[in-house]
Queue: 4 jobs
Job 1
Amino acid sequence: MTTSALLPTFARADLSFERGEGSWLFDTRGDAYLDAGGGIAVNSLGHAHPHLVGALVEQAQKVWHVSNLMRIPGGERLAERLVEASFADKVFFVNSGAEANECAIKMARKFHAHGGHPERYRILTFEGAFHGRTLATIAAGGQQKYIDGFGPKVEGFDQVSIGDKAAIEKWIGPESAAFMIEPIMAEGGVRVVNPQTLRHLRELADKHGLMLIFDEVQTGVGRSGRFFAHEKVGVTPDILSVAKGIGGGFPLGACLATEYAARGMTVGTHGTTFGGNPLAMACGNAVLDVVLAPGFLGEVERKALLLKQRLAELRDRHPGVIAEIRGDGLLIGLRLETPNTEFTNAARAEKLLVVPAGDNTVRLLPPLTITDDEIGEVIRRLAAAATRIEEATPRRAAE
């Protein structure tokens, strides 16, 4: 492998793809890989979805970028559709999940400053969280491995254990501004947050005048089988971040909020050069055309149940490799008895793509459009990967 001019911040596999179709990717040798990673939950409609491609090409032949100094009709339409499909009244478009979370953080702080309490700026997050890679969002996540080497941690973020009700209540004080949480902690090991915890946070936020922020960067836009994962537990946030699947592969994110939560975000308080550009808006609207079509989300839930049932059978056959099945919808985690990097490599040898995560898990994040037959093929290749590992274990022990 030749030396690359790219900054070496990724341990990239020696694998490159030149085209994709649906749930499949084809490498430069023409070999087909079943994509159960979805570009880390991004390719919600799979690869080269005809409606998404058509929308992008049509818009590319018109106008790509005009800046937010002008009205962008596609953005106004996408915002209206997101409001109609959610709890929100207002939307701000960005390019990534980290930017969506930055907007959410700023909005929560500005809410209190606008109300005459600038001292209320601290945000409580939870151990094992992941909210992005900017200086503020690594501080929000609180994981030392992401903070080390980047100077003092950005002030204003505290972490507690997700199930520690007493610690959560003790944290509340005159500087408290908001809670920030992922309904499913995906990077942190695909840990589904107990609905009672989310309800408790909502009750505390209402009681103490705090904002409740849901990070649905990875869970939003159908991944859970609902448009947003929080809908399943009946807990509504004040502010929500979304990205990844909303653009179907085109860089797009958004921060959604109630009118009340967004009251401090007036002209000049926040901005973006590329966020909400016409190309991104065309893609976002195309994704919503598909995801919000009648019956689509019901099909996601059905396929998710099928996948989970088949995975439970797989775990029973390979208990020395797969310890636990986690997750919800088409965001599934396999907690492993063997190193997750080893399992990822074994799956790749079977031409199946999965994504490592924390707590020694791998994630399955297939397109929401995956077929039943393809789910069966995912299971077959996972079983082959597990068998590879089982067969290699006695050899390593003998050595």
Note: The CA atoms of residues 56 and 283 lie 6 Å apart.
Job 2
Amino acid sequence: MGAGKLAPGELLPPMRELAVELGVNPNTVAAAYRTLRDRGVIETAGRRGSRVRERPASTPRELIRVDAPEGVRDVSTGNPDPALLPPLGEALAAAAERARRDPVLYGTPAVDTDLERMAREMFARDGVPDGPMTVTSGALDGIERVLAAHLRPGDAVAVEDPGWGSLLDLVPALGLRAVPVGVDDDGPLPEDTERALQQGARALIVTARAQNPTGAAVGEARARALRAVLARHPQVLLVEDDHGHGIVDLPLHPLAGGTDHWVFVRSVAKAYGPDLRLAVLTGDAVTVDRVRGRQRLGHGWVSHVLQDAVLHLWRSGAVDTVAVAGAYGRRRDALVRALRERGVEAHGRSGMNVWLPVPDETGAVARLLHAGWAVAPGARFRVASRPAVRLTVSTLAMEEIGTVADALAAATVAMSVGRYD
């Protein structure tokens, strides 16, 4: 493989056959296959055998993108609207002043007491079960630590499909195997979730709201159905990601409580700025203790300067969450409505993204680029779901909605009748 003699996706010989061919013990080949799988070079699918991964686990899906040339509007990024992010100067100055008065030294508790208290209050209002808490460097850092604390290379993880590209990269990078779970506007499909767990998935990762890329949000009825599924599999690790907190006006319907091990992670990146690498994480005592222990052996803690800055932002009400959610909602809903008026299927129940199924991603991206719009190829977010493209509405002006809807509709209609010119 290192010499490039095996192509991506190529099926590897059965271990016993290779052992005979090489004249070695089958256990030696099994160990080699296991090492390759753990390093993300190959993937295994039970009786269907092992094959070379389509791309190395360390290759980020973000590389599957279109660079917007000059004069082309880039609606592919997934970034929040800078105009809706709060200024950080006052919060950072307040954090610096607190650090001057009471410097953080070795031995200081990892989580700021006031930050933990306020986070607990917010969790309680949203119906998240009470549990110990820690702070991580963003949602993905928290999810990685939780998966590493509970799972071993080769274990299966049920993931949303389509879903967050960085998470789809993380799972194989940890030597884990992704089992896709279909998603509609209400979140993961219960029947797909049941099937994944019956097939042996040891963890399930669910996005509570503002699902990336589809905008799905777990509603009350869907949450009830998913809790019923989880109640039949109490040994499964449940991970809930609420990165949409602060930019979504839909209520939270948490799933936690039906499994032995669970975590709920809430980051501040979308509402307060991606450079604030901070998320609060709560869960069952065993899981959180494992995460804390591993943190102590690594970077120790998330900077108290950042923790104090986030605390200041929360206390001061620096973000008008109703106004921010409304701003994203108006743009998103207007685009979805405009597309449906043009006979085009589109999804975007919450958050800042709109998901548009298309007959052919390459053709759609090329046509839209020619029309002056750079969109994200759906391949960045898919495992086995149908082709699509993603648009981020965060910087769209309302007067641009009709123009981009016309371009999207034209591209979709042209491809549906076989025109790719």
Note: The mean pLDDT is 91.
Job 3
Amino acid sequence: MNSYELMVIFTPVLSEEDFKASQKKYEDFIAEQSGATVHSNPWGLKSLSYPIQKKTTGIYWIFEFNAPAEAIEKLKIQLLRDEQVLRHMITRLDKNAVEYNYRKRNGGFAVTEKAEA
């Protein structure tokens, strides 16, 4: 199984319950495809750099998961069919990115002292 990160921008008119339901829908979809959730990070309402479908804000959600490669194409189809999704991006993570995300979630990086010459 590969590690992936999904970034989704949902339409800003979603209620809190609809936003949580959409998150759960995609988490359940990954579980159905023999995948596993690593981390879910809802960013909330943010301004967009440029208007998308005449909207200047969107609700961001970052979702890190492990899944087989075959599940990604099915996930893309589900995201494209969903009218609540303005944009999405799926990124395959290498081992360094996985380690970086893990450290970032769990308190950051340790500060090392400079060795004197």
Note: The domain at 2-95 is CATH 3.30.70.60 (Alpha-Beta Plaits).
Job 4
Amino acid sequence: MVERGERDGATGRERGVALVMAMVALAILAVMLADMQQSTAAAFVVASSERDQLRAEYMARSGVNLTRMLVAQEPMIRTAVAPMYQMLIGRPPPQLPVWSFASDLLQPFCNYQGAQGMAGDTGMDFSGAEGIGDTNATCQITAFAENSRINLNDPLFFDGDRARTSVAMQFFALQGGYQSPSPFDPLFEQLDADGQMSTRQDIVSALIDWWDYDTERTNFDPGAATVTVGGAEDDIYQRLDDSYRAKNAPFDSLEEIRLVRGVGDDFWATFIEEDREHPENRLVTIYGSGSVNPNEAPPQVLLARVCSVLTDQSLCTDPTEAAKFIQLFQTVRGIAPIPFFSSGGDFMTFLEGGGGAQDLYPMLRGFLGESSPLLFRPVTITPQQRQVLDPLLVTGAKILSINVTGQSGRATVTLRSVMNFHERWTPPPPNAGVMPGLGIFYYYRVE
């Protein structure tokens, strides 16, 4: 017979084991619940991030397509504002750079809450508009004409020595080659990124050798405004530790320019792209036709284009006169961001200081005074120079960069694209011979 005390001791031990098992079970359940919570939270964060990423990307795509539609409607907008422009400037308007104002004009689509917040100031309420509403995402559009930059690539509509000379003269002028002294001189008085001494002419020649189709070295003479060939163009690259050869084909991207002799970080930041986040400030392009739009081009670009023909004028040789031109142009555009020139001839008239009371230079002279030190000294353009310069100045844009940044939550997607609207460009099949109203993609990249 088992005694009562023995039975009670056994029961106590069983209870102790049960308590331990219960504690172990609770510990296991707590670990499982913590792991489940962590997995669920991680899955939720990933799903939210992917949702925001998708929203941001499609918002960026919408920004690109809406800007294309806005550009396609430019002729109708120009017709509407023509009477007002005619009254103000005294001549018909050129193509209007509507793309420059795309982010503001398309705000109801890109930032619905922002547009609604300004309804009291603008008097426009979009709450009743069909197809417009809060998408929990926004987009920021930056669009600009590529022909408002100096083209460094094989020009679209120039060939042979004309193409080489055009690129060489422009880029040499952009580097301050015709100024004495030039503020950029110290950049060419030190070793480049490869430990070589590279002059302006060396870099200009190497740039052309990269995209021309022969294997001979280009020799550029800025004084005679000529290019000749002679010698092997790959010698400089073959002497490098990691040797390579010139491409002998047009540039496919702006970053490819870094492979050209003499293009280091300092050179890149000075002449190519100072800030990648603000491509609208870029001075060069690889998508240009060789002509420049004076209504949109930065004054440094206009100066380089003009000085590629008027090499002996004070505007091109005197750094002080060049600085006046740049400052004056920047100030005028800051005050009145409108296209002042209906044709290339109007811009040449401005350079010569001529025109009527409604033309830009006489207007500035009236505001600042006849002998104002802020006015640059007018140039003299001969008939022969005018004939050369006229096709190099256009007041329309056919190739546009459209960069859109979509944002939703913490997700940000930037879409960089280059659109071609030129009627002379023939798309491949099945649309051969037809230029779509919304243009053709030259370049498309999602970041």
Note: The chain has 16 helices and eight strands.
